[in-house]
C-alpha cells in the first residue's frame, strides 16, 4: 500500500471556501484507478494548513497514473486558487490500516480522547 501525504497551505481568508471546493472535486480523486481511500485533515494550531492523506494500490497508480490524467488537471484547477504556496507531496509504503485501528475505543468518551474527564 502506498500512502501519499500532500501538505496543502491555504490562504487564511479562504479556508472555508477551500473545504467546500474540495468536497466538490473529491469524486475525481475517488474514481481514480488504484485509489483506496483518502482523508482531508486540518491543522489544529494552524488551521490554514491541511494534509490530504491518500491510499493508493501502487505508486504508479498515483504517479504517473492519476497525476497525468485529465481528472487530476480538473482536481487541481478546482483547488489551486486557494493555495498560499505550492503543495508538498511525499509517498510512503506501509501496511493497510485495519478498520478497528481507525475507530475510537468504545470505553473512551469524546472528552476522554481530548484529555478531559
TrEMBL record:
| Pfam families the record matches | ABM
Keyword Transmembrane helix appears in the UniProt entry: no
Recorded E.C. number(s)? 1.14.-.-
| InterPro entries in the cross-refs | ABM_dom (IPR007138), Dimeric_a/b-barrel (IPR011008)
Q: Which UniProt keywords apply?
A: Monooxygenase, Oxidoreductase
UniProt domain ABM: residue ranges: 1-75
Q: Which lineage?
A: Bacteria, Pseudomonadati, Pseudomonadota, Gammaproteobacteria, Lysobacterales
Q: Could you cite one Gene Ontology molecular function of this protein? A: monooxygenase activity
Q: What is this protein called?
A: Antibiotic biosynthesis monooxygenase
- Note the SUPFAM superfamilies from the entry: Dimeric alpha+beta barrel
Q: Where is this region: Disordered?
A: 95-117
